[in-house]
Write a structure and sequence with these properties.
The structure is a homotrimer. Helices cover about 40% and strands about 15% of the residues of chain A. Chain A is of the alpha/beta class. In chain A, the strands form two sheets. A five-stranded parallel sheet of chain A has the order 7-6-5-8-9. Chain A has a four-stranded parallel sheet with strand order 2-1-3-4, with helices on both faces. The longest helix of chain A is centred in the C-terminal third of the chain and has 21 residues, at about 300-319. In chain A, about 55% of the residues are buried.
């Protein structure tokens, strides 16, 4: 079966997942993002690459922050951005998802940025576009269920490459609720594609998926073991709904076992970087002293995220 | 009384209804829309006709889809578009509709796109603007109560003209809940103005208005009779709230009597086109096989709708 | 302590309050606004002064009208405007206000327009930006709690100067619920800075703050006394929530004592102007005959408000 993200020439036509994304495509995105990083520091932060293109933000699940990053990226590329409040739209009136897509394509949409609570929704849209022969319309997955959040995965890779260069020499620890995290899943696939030296998944048994060892990931239930001599630490957000449930005793207990404190951070390499996809729960998964400390690169991640999203959009629009 | 849609020179100054719209004005809009059709297929889908103009979307009744079509049309004309969430605005704080309008005019609004649950609200605004001497500010009715939805009526005419050319030779069947449909009302007036050969209204007695025969419309309570040898079939959306009420036994029963199936469609001319204003209730008023079949022009309607709205806005801004 | 609104060169770097704003800065804003007034009457109502800048509307408290005025002002300066629905954003997920700000700064925000129910929130943001060394990011207070609404205060000054010129010769009466009004507070500070001849606060004891006399304001509990020979009358909106509470017997009673009727207006100078920040409660604080009469300058206030906001934004972006 053809990789649904690539066209016949092997070029990126949708961004759905970091799973199955060839290393060269990832590298192309990161290289393009490097060139965009400078634009956001200019006095006039705009390039005309998507001028006259219509980008639709289809957020079936609410996320002001992620929507904002895509909106900024698209506007800096000079696109026309249309935000659809999908929860109040025709889809709510019983229209099917694909009828909605067909309608927007008929309005000459060029790109859909899709966030959906159901895993696979962006795939469904991409497959439909292929079926109706519209290779000129592109889908970017902005997070689907527990499945994937590829632009977050790519901006994480951009961040690691920015600070650490050679992936093959690195030890990367991902800490927290990996089971429910589309960010972790996207990071794991991208880290594998880029040939990362050692990848560790750190968390309580109840929050780790079972197939990790088959992916070549080292599983650690103990935070100290997981962090020792790490070059990169990726902390995950603990969703509020997990904190008082069957999976976890309490937020305080979680912080005690898996919270990143200065003492714990000291176990990693002295020049280790600390990442977090945001928004942070200070005092739950991360101590404020670490979050605001010199090793944290959490705000640079946000800056890189705009450049990575501009890169993805401009590559899609160019193909 | 002066036609409230036209200025003293007989030019379009507001678009409020297809009722009373002279044939030449309708033709001017359709001809202008033809020229815009090409813009949406360009690489850079923009023309500077409304650059620096402020278009306000005033949707007192929520409709993401219709608002989106106007937003796209305005942005492709390079206008600044401001979406007002009117349900949360000063009007909700007890300010009158006309105070809101006066305020927006004081901010140098150029155009209001108005959707309102009350029939006549866009007229009220247009009359007020005339009273205060602001001929340079224009109103487009985007649907008012059960009264009118003139851009939908005009895009339907554009669609018919596109596929069928000469209206005088055509038989057009409008099927469904005509009584509550502002789309049907706008179509009926426009079809009359363009000298359509035969217009049929098809539906159960409870969903047809009483004055149809006085408008020269042929009333059919039987779908087969209504469709026989028709050139154009316009299916109407059955509002959910009608389905279990006093007017209709059930959605299943409705589909049995008035749903457009392949067998029913076969009664029309072999080259008949099938239209629907969307969003469709598949399996209620239309069978999916017809909706997705070769005679359906439902998605082209959407494409034409952008061009027609661009035409209306550019004509208004030019006058 | 350094004035948090000015940089070391004494130039405006944030607009937080009219309190402490030097007279020359106020005059600079009003003079700049005069030059912008003409732009909104042009055919193409746009200047490229903020092209490529990202302006974020952060409305923690809903206000469609005020947000719209800032959105129009920013778009006429060619900025990219991003509206954040903050009530649905990460802040709602427990992220702190300053984490949200840090994130948006990392996305290369240039300006924040902030409305917040808590007095001081815009100050907090401005202080934070100074602490992290980001003098290139600017805050405009669009209303914080009962504290300040400086762009409204400045547009009121613009209006008075437009119609009356020399402040030192004027008697200005502010009528209504001064205790809870950030507009009144911003007007009082600006009127003082501009050396207004006589300022009167008119209202029932329960709706006037206690420290007015220390500010040199003459307190009048009787409307007739308050209006006599006034040049300028600023009516305040009576918030609905005040009308049936402990502070006021009823809206009807209030109108009887403090509503501006034609008879009351006749006590002021014959060329007195009547102002109101909107939205008006007709028949509560102001009679429709006055609101729509020749002495009302309520709609010009709205027009001037766009020019004043363009002036503030362009001065901030230039510094």
């Amino acid at each position: 079966m053809r990789n649904p993200q690539l066209n016949d020439a092997g070029e990126l036509t949708h961004l759905l997942s970091t799973d199955g994304l060839p290393r060269e495509v990832i590298t192309q995105i990161l290289d393009t993002a490097s060139s965009f990083l400078e634009i956001s520091t200019r006095d006039v932060k705009k390039v005309p690459l998507l001028r006259g293109k219509s980008v639709f933000n289809l957020f079936f699940e609410n996320s002001t922050r992620t929507r904002t990053t895509f909106e900024i990226a698209a506007k800096r590329l000079s696109a026309d951005v249309i935000n659809l409040d999908v929860s109040r739209s025709s889809t709510a009136k019983g229209e099917t998802l694909l009828d909605t897509i067909d309608n927007l394509v008929a309005m000459h949409a060029d790109m859909f940025v899709v966030r959906h609570a159901s895993s696979g929704a962006p795939y469904l849209i991409a497959e439909h576009l292929q079926r109706v022969g519209r290779d000129d319309v592109h889908v970017v997955n902005a997070g689907d269920g527990r499945h994937a959040h590829p632009t977050q995965g790519l901006l994480d890779m951009f961040t690691i490459r920015h600070y650490k260069q050679d992936f093959s020499q690195l030890t990367v620890a991902i800490v927290g609720d990996i089971l429910h995290s589309r960010v972790a899943r996207s990071d794991l696939h991208a880290l594998a594609a880029l040939g990362t030296g050692e990848v560790r998944a750190v968390g309580p048994q109840t929050l780790l998926p079972s197939a990790l060892d088959k992916m070549g990931v080292r599983v650690c239930h103990d935070l100290a073991t997981g962090l020792r001599d790490a070059d990169v630490i990726i902390m995950l957000r603990l969703q509020n709904e997990r904190m008082n449930g069957a999976l976890l005793p309490s937020a305080r207990e979680y912080f005690h076992c898996y919270g990143l404190t200065p003492a714990m951070l000291a176990l990693a390499k002295p020049d280790a970087i600390v990442m977090h996809p945001g928004p942070m729960n200070r005092g739950v998964e991360i101590d404020s002293e670490v979050a605001d400390g010199p090793q944290a690169v959490i705000l640079p991640q946000v800056t890189f995220g705009i450049a990575v999203r501009m890169a993805v959009m401009s590559i899609l629009a160019g193909n």
